[in-house]
Amino acid sequence: MKKIAIILILAGVSLSTLAQVAPQKYFIEFMDKTNSIYSINSPAQFLSYRAIERRQRQGIPIVQNDLPVNQSYINRVKQYSVTELTRSKWFNGITIYCLNPSIIDSILKFPFVKRIYKSSEVDRVKHSKSDDKFMLDEVMLQYNSFSPASSKSGYNGNTGYDYGVSYNQIHMLNGDSLHKLGYKGEGMVIAVLDAGFRYVDILPAFDSLRLNNQILGTRDFVSPGNNVYHENEHGMEVLSTMGGNIPGQLVGTAPKASYWLLRSEDSNSEFLIEEYNWVAAAEFADSAGADIINSSLGYTEFNDAAQNHTCSDMNGHTTPATRGANIAASKGMIVVCSAGNSGDKPWKCISSPADGLGVLAVAAVNASGIRAGFSSVGEATLRIKPNIAAQGAPAVVSSTNGTIMSASGTSFSSPVIAGMTACLWQAAPTWSNLSITRAIELSGNQVSHPDSLLGYGIPDFIKAMQHVNIDKKEIVPAPNIYPNPFATTFTLSLNAKTAQKIDLYLIDNLGLVAFYMHTKTEGAGDYKITVPDLSSLPNGNYLIKVVGQDLLLNKMIIKCNN
Q: 403 and 489 in one domain?
């Protein structure tokens, strides 16, 4: 969807030229994690069992960006009477609130401080409750109450659920058939990153989640310690499409999954600080052991036109939220994002972090499977964006008064997919995030002709299930990489089933693409791909990502000249 509220970009600045209206929030990036009290050899000190197990299951090593931020650096900064808001181990820094910006120059002089980003403040816009609702899904927001008595029945005796009017948004994906097989998300954990979860603690749609302790907890990364149940209702509506359960009216796509409710978005602000909040929330989701992140948030243009993102920035590795999403995917999670609601606006293109290389970006269609005009446009050249599509024009969600209603936007097509993804992964728990994502793409109704509007199209989760049921193994054996560690170059040895295009990425610890190459296979057979000279690449750990029609790889590789 379009970003919840208009925001302003954070940019590296010369602190001697601060704006006349001094900002109060900064992101301070540190040089290193030297002398950390933690070690990658003792991950249980900073990662949950589920987080460690996810890495082990997918062959993902624990690396330096898993280590917490150096507490001694934080303590030195806080000597200046600043308030710490969030911290990011992936970006190695903290977000602070500062009443006296003049001290920022002093903080910058610390030898362990690499750079400081500020949020530039123009006008701080306060919205009424109704305006908030509009901003939350900027295009074609239709909030109409349904009358269950007049609705077509969606009862499915095989699943035990009476879906009511939510039947179509599930049946379109063949999700009711997956439920029939017993896969309803049980044992899976979904982290929901949003603007607030108003009344989730009391609304009837979430009775089952509360009764069965499926809400694992909440965190507020905008105002730490705040009650997310008192904030914006957008996250509540999003959650209802996954975990809601009002028999005869609304049933979510993953009613048996467990959920973390994480507020990263300030619906009353215009700061890109929310992108750093997003990264902090994604890090928490990783550390807590979440399997899937749903993010019905998007970042595009700001009040200060000079600081806008551009469509060329939606290249999969530039904006802070996108870089964070790529790192989240490198940790073995599946990141599902709304593609955006700007398809019929001058902006048109998808938003951050939906553009991420490791992100499953979801477009919106109507109840008949026809693309919604507002659904943002991506690309279909070297990569496919959006990836897939689901019903979002409109979707059935819970309202704040306990009834159900319709609401339109990719904000809702995204969680519909996230919930079904949890059900599919429940069926094939040994599969990697990348392989589950690819199985979903391959089940799309336009997989043979993907485009920039709906990607691979509307997935069929029973077809995806057939992919993951192939001997309960990965689609293809993981390619062999040698040497690893490498000094200047390395080779991939792989087997292709068909002629296909292959994209190879090296992604650094900040989520940036350090190297990219495009190649292809001429047909079925064994192939070797040797990358060119990478001697100028800095030493360190990199995620190597290889994507083809039936070739999937998401693995760590080490660059070391010594």
A: no
